[in-house]
Amino acid sequence: MSSTIVVPPRFSWVIASLSTIPVLLTYQLVKTARARSRAKIPYPQLYAEKAEQEASLDAKIFNCTQRAHQNTLESVPVVLITTLISGLRYPTLAAGACGIFVLTRWRYTVNYSTGVPDKRAFPARIGYATMLSLLGMSLKAAYDLVRMDM
Fold it and tell me: Domain of life of the organism in this record (predicted)?
């Protein structure tokens, strides 16, 4: 038995925007690995200890870079799911919101990786606002799709 899945026009933009997430994560992975190497923080140590961070700017930069990557990994499942659901009803808006999320996460990483945590605040706010918009769109899309099914 076979099934057919019909996606709306412009859903390709949703796929294109989602494909930028692995690019972002790879960028963060490389940036974190380089910061780890410069700070001489051995595996499997997840972060530099407080004393290491206070003694070395490289250790602080590593902690900030590692945290930017970890924080993105914490957010990505929500973005993936809400972009896919939103994209079924609002493909252009969902793709745009996902793209904005990725751009703000890139800027968040660049700013946070300076070793000055406060520099992450502005892109973080925009990124979280984008996540909330995706959540709202996905809830509305789910509501619309359920109503169409009745």
Answer: Eukaryota
Domain 12-149 has CATH 1.20.120.550: yes
Structure tokens at 27: 């960028």
Domain ranges of the chain: 12-149
Residue 34 Ramachandran class (φ > 0 left, ψ -120 to 50 alpha, else beta): alpha
Q: How far is 20 from 55, CA to CA, in rounded Å? A: 36
Residues with Cβ within 8 Å of 105's Cβ and at least 6 positions away in sequence, in order, are: 24, 72, 75, 123, 127
Closest to 79 measured CA to CA, from 41, 71, 113? 71
* 3-class secondary structure per residue, 77-139: HHHHHHHHHHHHHCHHHHHHHHHHHHHHHHHHHHHHCCCCHHHHHHHHHHHHHHHHHHHHHHH
pLDDT digits over 92-114, tens only? 999 999 999 999 999 999 999 99
Lowest mean pLDDT among 6-10, 31-35, 36-40, 118-122: 6-10
Spatial separation of the C-alpha atoms in residues 38 and 23, rounded to whole Å: 23
